[in-house]
Amino acid sequence: MLNLLLLLDIVPGPANPAAPVPETPQGPWMGFAYFGFCAVLAVVGAIATVASPNPIRGAMGLLLMIISIAGLFLALHAQFIAAIQVIVYAGAIVVLFLFVIMLLGSDAQTPSDQRGRIPRFGAAALFAGLGLAALTLLGRTMAKPKLPGDVGSDFGSIDSIGKVLFTDMLVPFEISSALLIVAVVGAIAVARGKHGELAEKGALNK
Amino acid sequence: MDSLLSVFPSKDFSLLGIILVAPLLGAFVNGVWGRRLGRDAVRLMAITAIAVSFVAALLTFLALDREVTHAGHGHVKLAWTAWDWLYTTGKSETQIPIALRFSVDALSGVMMLVITGVGLLIHIYASTYMWDDKSYWRFFCYLNLFVFSMLVLVLGDNMPLLFVGWEGVGLCSYLLIGFWYGKMANAAAGKKAFIANRIGDFGLICAMFLFVHYTGALDWNGIEAGSGSLVTVNEATQVHVWPIGGGQFTGFLKFLQPDSPITITAATAVGLALLLGATGKSAQIPLYVWLPDAMAGPTPVSALIHAATMVTAGIYLICRLNFVFVLAPGVMATVAVIGAATAFLAATIALVQNDIKKVLAYSTVSQLGFMFLGVGMGAFTAGFFHVFTHAFFKACLFLGAGSVIHGMHARIHDDDKAQDMRKMGGLRKYMPLTFWTFLISTAAIVGFPLTSGFFSKDEILFKTMTTELVHPDAERLGKKVTFVQSLWGARDPSHFYVPPAWLGTALYWVGIAAATMTAFYMSRVVILTFFGEFRGWKLGRPSQIDAHEAAAHDDAHGDDAHGDDDGEHHHEEDLTKPGYAPHESPRPMTIPLILLAVFAAFAGILNPGLLKHFGLPLPLEHWLEPLFEESVKVGVHAKEGAEHMELMCTAGAFGAFAVGVGLAYWVYVVQKGAPAKQWAEAAPKLYKLLLDKWRVDEAYEASVLSGVDALADTATSVDKGVVDGILARLTALLVAAFGTILRALQTGVVHVYAGMMVVGLAGLGWFFVMPHPDGHVVEKGSGDYSIVAAPGVGYGYIWAEDGAKRPEKEVFSGTAAFPLHVEPGNTKKVELKVRNAFGIVGTKTFEVTAPAKAAPAEVIEMGQNGHGS
Amino acid sequence: MIPVEYYVGLSAILFLIGGIGFLVRRNVLVALMSIEVMLNATNLALVAFNRQHAQAHTGQVLSFFVIAVAAAEAAVGLAIVLSFFRLKRTVRSDEADLLRN
């Protein structure tokens, strides 16, 4: 992975030798190892999500990616967000996905589609090209990466995030709660269908 | 009286408001709630409204009289401003106010009394005449509205307000003529009246524009004050007739350009425009065709509108603006000629008509021609006096005809047949009151000595004979030209046209001929209708009826059920039994007849022209003198020996009366109508032509109306073919085609749409991938410039000045600005190479030119004595 | 200590993977999961930048809201998938062309 990054000229070599390498109790390279581990797992999970034909495997891949990213959040001093990530994403959204997949049963897996391959892959290639172009641009124009400064111990803690949420960001907070209610009502309305519970039963007895 | 009138000062005479508002209120109440109120209430409201207006008008007249006696001499007006209305911009940005300002002076005072007085009598008459009509309330609403509009016309102190009244009476005339709109013919007649009026209104509007432009005012005082500017001698400010509006024909149209532009004075232009309006409203040639058709309306309408008031609006206008007309003697002559020609033409048509109302209609047109003749020859008082007397005797004649028709409806309920004089006769014994009033009014119209009509007509004819029109500016201008020369040929602003002196004499003889014919046909009407035996027994009856049997049923007969809106009657009559005889009309109908007949007989005392030799005063002439004396001094010149000709002219008028009545008596009473039949058979084509009203309507239909129809047809086919067919369908086709093409992109699958989004994004990305070399030049002064390149992410620049030494290895640096020095008058080229983060290079060349050095400012040495060096 | 740019780079790679997955796979469920991948990548970038500019907690709060909205969207989206399945008995997005033309 790092070699790939080097190839793309994104990483200009080792960190600035002039700056002192901060000492962690575990040693300076612990951070990199941790980051690399989480990053690799995240990418593997993402690829599994996208590429596996069986959606259950895809959901598992998603789960892996989410937990890896939670780990990365922890490295970024975002404890609260990491916790939220695990609780909401891994604990609710992935579970929801799994419910639906299991509800659909074997119909959830669609056979590999041969038609329309060229437009699909063409679009995907175009997208990938765009992404790579953006990455290259970024890599060649950005300044030497600097190490981030120290942060206080309460950075990213529940206290501080809570404080921001309930003072500066109160309005978006309330609005998002309303949004969630709307989403719940909408989901019920959409999933109920025309005949209410009978329809759900029908979906079960396929 | 004094205390009452002291409430209303002469500058703020708000009694005028009451005169105007009362009929308006009556119209409003009857119009909105009339259907629910019931006939009695409607009648009460309408008649009270007019009565209030009449009383107020009387009081106003008395107040005016007092003011006149106080002032002694001069033009006295009582004015009242309701509110300020509009402003319009005149020449050189002056603001011309148009206020809702009403005024009464000598002229409008008399008119006001006539309108409200005769209006009141006609309202009373109509309240019984129209009693059985379904839309009773609508009739009185319109009638009140008409009186209001006419009062606005007459009392308005400025031209726009007069125009409002003018249009209002036109509208009410349309509404009332087409009152029984269920029948197509009535509606068509109403439309014809309105459209003919409208053509005249165009003239009035043009006149208003000219007034604004030349005199800079629209109220009577202002126009009079500024009327001098209507006769400018300067060619540039006159009205250009050819080329129209000034200017020149150039290019291939040069052959149309005359040697010198043909211009007329503004006074002439205004006069002609006003004349067009007056001919429309007062039914003169060429716009008289609506008046005979207007007889489709109920008879009280014909009496009020088409005899007494509305049609006199044109003459009122000319009298009101007399100070403008006298500035253009050519226009005055035109007015007189049109009047005389119309009088003659209408009289010839009336000779052979069989419908009693049609005869009266043509008689009205003819008498209006007389009025025009009078005012055209500068005899404003005489013309106006004829308006005054005509109101009485013509209203009486029409109401009498209505009474006759009302009686005939006992026999037959068809309008056309009920009005046919060939089916009447001997009504003298059935309707004595109607007969006597009709006879008195006929005496007035034919010029029986000492009746009002005798004096007024005689005055007009006398003045026509003994007047010549003069140009107000004759001495100043100098060169008199003939009629033909005034239209064509080399022109000079100092040329002016004056009608020849023999015009008066010629028109006098035409007037005499028309008066003779008037006497003849009116006597014919009286004889056919009231004398002899009743010929209408067989109307509506298949068998012959004995007169005695019919008379026996007379007493049992009450009012018949009268018409619905369509004028047809659905009386369930047994056609085998003998019918009823005609009967006299009820009292509310006969009392106005009597009053009007009295006025027709004795109103002549107000201006007994002939009798001034016996020492009698001329009150009306004296009353109207302040208005007209200046104009008369300027534009009208009595020929020498005028006083001696009076007796001769009167003898001529008397001769016309005698010959006409005598001939009618001989033909219809002595010979029982045989010579009339012989003449008709001897010249059948001429007879048919006269009966068909000289086929003027048909001529209009063939020429003007067909032209308009053709235009409309062209427009329709263009609309259908080009606009609808080509444009609309073409655009629809294009849109549909595009839609079909674009539909292919709508697959409905979300992923396809996402793919399209990516394609779009790629296009955007292409913009970022390619480099964009650009820059702008900053001038630092004294030949120093700096070229600043546009910034971009990851851009590297190489600057290369033309001719400068190039380094071997080109390195892209980050310097975005490049300094440059250019000598004045020189040009330098600089090339900019840009490389972006992807390694793609773009180039742009800048060319910088320094302007040549400006010459240093010259310094002028000032010597001690201030000379420049 | 890891420079923030590494996190951003990782976020970009994850976003790419998610995007390519969405464009290529026609299974609706997998497409929804790819969207979740993309959202997570965004969250990572947000939190990483917040680490760099640590004056305020803007990035983390924003990613909090992103998580909330993603949850709502996943719920409704799955409900739609269920309705669609009831209608067409398949989860292929190619079959969801009721709005064709």
Textual characterization of the structure:
- The complex is a heterotrimer of chains A (206), B (869) and C (101).
- Chain A has 206 residues and is mainly α.
- Chain A has helices at 2-7, 28-51, 55-75, 79-104, 117-141, 158-166, 170-192, 197-204.
- Chain A has a domain at 169-206.
- Chain A has eight helices and no strands.
- The longest helix of chain A has 26 residues, at 79-104.
- The termini of chain A are far apart.
- The N and C termini of chain B lie far apart (89 Å).
- In chain B, the strands form six sheets. In chain B, strands 9-10-12 form a three-stranded antiparallel β-sheet, with no helix packed on it. Chain B has a three-stranded antiparallel β-sheet with strand order 11-13-14, with no helix packed on it.
- Among the domains of chain B are: 339-470 and 504-567 and 577-691, no CATH class; 768-849, Sandwich (Immunoglobulin-like), CATH 2.60.40.10.
- Chain C is elongated, with a radius of gyration of 17 Å.
- Chain C has 101 residues and is an all-alpha fold.
- Chain C is built from three helices and no strands.
- The interface between A and C is large, with 94 and 71 residues.
